[in-house]
Amino acid sequence: MSAASSSSRRDILALAGACALAPALPAFAAREERPEDMSGDEVVRSGHRFFGSIARNLALAVQEAARRWGQPNAYVLGQEASGAFVGGLRYGEGVMFTRNAGKKRVYWQGPTLGFDAGADGDRTMMLVYNLPSAEAIYTRFGGVDGSAYLVGGLGLTELMAGDIVLAPIRSGVGARLGVSFGYLKFTREATWNPF
């Protein structure tokens, strides 16, 4: 066997090895640091600035969430609109804040199905628990939502995706009554497709 063909064979094997490792390299390079936990006072102060005078009971909602799930390691501030008559849709947009992993623009949308009727527009604070990385927010969170208010109200619900818990606190204007099952899909870009 000539030295040239042996060198060419080594080059081919090296190229094949590099091609096999190529898909793993972006995943390795994209690893992110886990967001740090935030104190309840920090979340309440941010929520009061966001909700204003509407959210007098915000501290109670944050305390209840802390009792259930501990300290959040991220939160989302945004706005959303939804409507339902048995089946419904919800669309929203906002910014996710973390202590050490920066901010991310997020959009969410999703369908609902249940005993639910009405329409509302909400300012929303979503507390996020057990978020392993900032990119992990871009997934579907499923759960049950209950609403009962006329003109305005404040509500806390729970949605889950694996170990990640999302606790939306909504301060809304509208008329809504019911219980529904559904999910919220978080995306990097706005879309009308709720599925």
Helices, strands, pairings?
Elements: H1 3-21, H2 24-29, H3 40-51, H4 58-69, E1 74-97, E2 103-129, E3 140-156, E4 158-161, E5 164-187
Antiparallel strand pairs: 1-2, 2-5, 3-4, 3-5, 4-5
Helix pairs in contact: 3-4
Give the C-alpha Rg.
22 Å
Structural class: alpha+beta
**How would a crystallographer describe the biggest sheet?**
5 strands, antiparallel
Give the termini distance in whole angstroms.
59 Å
Number of helices: 4
Q: In terms of per-residue confidence, which ranges show pLDDT below 50 for 5 or more consecutive residues?
A: 12-30
Q: Give the ordered list of helices and strands.
A: HHHHEEEEE
Shape: globular
Supply the number of structural domains: 2
Signal peptide: 1-29
Protein name: DUF1134 domain-containing protein
InterPro entries: EipA-like (IPR008325), TAT_signal (IPR006311)
Pfam families: EipA (PF06577)
